[in-house]
Design a protein that fits this description.
595 residues, mainly alpha
Length: 595
Amino acid sequence: MGTGMLAFLSLLPIIVVAVFLVGMRWPASKAMPISYVVAVVLALFVWKVPGANVAAASVNGLVVAGTLLFIIFGAILLLNTLQESGGIKTIRQGFTDISGDRRIQVIIIAWLFGSFIEGSAGFGTPAAVAVPLLVGLGFPAMAAVVAGMVIQSTPVSFGAVGTPMLVGVQSGLAADPNITNNFLALTTLIGGKVAILHLIAGTLVPLFVVALMTRYFGKNKSFSEGIKVWKFALFAAFSMTIPYVIVANVLGPEFPSMVGGLVGLAIVVFAAKKGFLMPPKEQEWDFEEKSKWDPDWIGSLEIKDVAHKSGSMSMVRAWSPYILIGLFLVLTRLKALPIVDWLQAVVLKWENIFGSTITASFQPLYSPGTIFIVVSVITFFIHGMNSSGYKRAWSQSGKTMLAASTALIFTVPMVQVFLNTGGGAAGFERMPIELANGVAALAGEYWPFFSTFIGGIGAFIAGSNTVSNMMFALFQYDVGSQIGVDATWIVALQAVGGAAGNMICVHNVVAASAVVGLVGKEGAVIRKTLFPFFYYALLSGSVGYSIVWYSQKGIFNLGSFIAVGIAVAAVYIIATNNRRSNMILPPPINVKTAK
């Protein structure tokens, strides 16, 4: 069977998702079972993978889905605990004191706080923390999910203390010992290049977040209302990405997102309190009242305006659960501390499922879900809650989690079957590799444009930048060598594309939506995040093409033209919007004076 046909067949499960979930707007609970069946049929009858392996991959998918549901439950429980204690009301008031402008709030919470949480924990944890917090502050559930997904780009490559680079890229390249005898140094070098590409593409991410929010969820359905805060959005972007790039190139892959997010938070919150680049009070932007929202925007997670039993709560006390979340995530992820080994030592494992080489495992103490639950219990005492309110928090959290289970128990098994199609009697490579082979055969010297999209497709399928890098890092390195360019830049493009792919990743969207009870609207979310993903992958690929071919083609090459074109378009849109905003209308005529 030819390379092109194998690539097309490998694409079929993804086409099913695109048609039914995104195109026909079916809920994931209906679309993903079809995609799962297609993947199983291809694995059994085309790739000729043993039935035991397909069954084992499916079981492993169920275990992974269970671990995701555990995290979802913990995130929902924390939000419900804060709601019942009155903490959410105090936090909401604190943000109102900084600014009542929802555009400013979403940048601080999703972009900056989310980047810090991504750097600490990764694996979708920012959506589990930032998305429900936004809903608690009064954002429509869908607006919160879209914001949470769009920022799942720039910080992701260095999420979970550098896991996508140190585990994903490094283990992917290590499969070929002829490349180098120091894979850590090579990965660190690639990480510095990844950060530079993210600096370029990530500059507009906060602006995308606010523009999408005002366009899809505002009264006037206007991009321009979001673009009006472009100065603050760019300021917030650079406050995070500049320290991020410095750390990546000086200290290595572990801390760029964590430090960038934390430094950015400190700078931007301080500046916002001082009124720096803030919109005037009379121009603050807000959603319409909730009664006028589209029902599709609203999740089943009900936010009640509960005050603390004493009538008031200090801001430090209200924020203490999130402070503890950040602290515990950092302490349990720093490999220099012995606590990491202690927590990871407790493993629930099913090895060689059904006689295959596939192993399912779960580290309950290391899971972010455990941290969320522990912090929820601590919050019960710190906030002086009563037992009836805390029982309601647990009960409601369980109901919301169960609503998400149907979609995930088909989504993740489909992913695992897709990934475990190697070693079949047909002798084909795994579906992701056959798909990439087909693209590479067509791309030739233009591969840098496609490398980011391959990384993105890997993350879209696998739900993880780390897994995407493990699958494709060596493949990307080999293609870069074959076309005669610096292969480390091609691997960097893979890592950047894999990070951007988290914006459209099905099971990340399912998980983020489930946290706020927005089940069944996953396709609507992906349709809104497709354009930011396309922008991110295209701009990064264009810059990468310009860099790797600069020595042979000069600065005036196709990559440079596309990258400059995107930049000019962005400047034009911002300038046009700014000019419209600053138009001065003629003063009203004074009738008496006219007479």
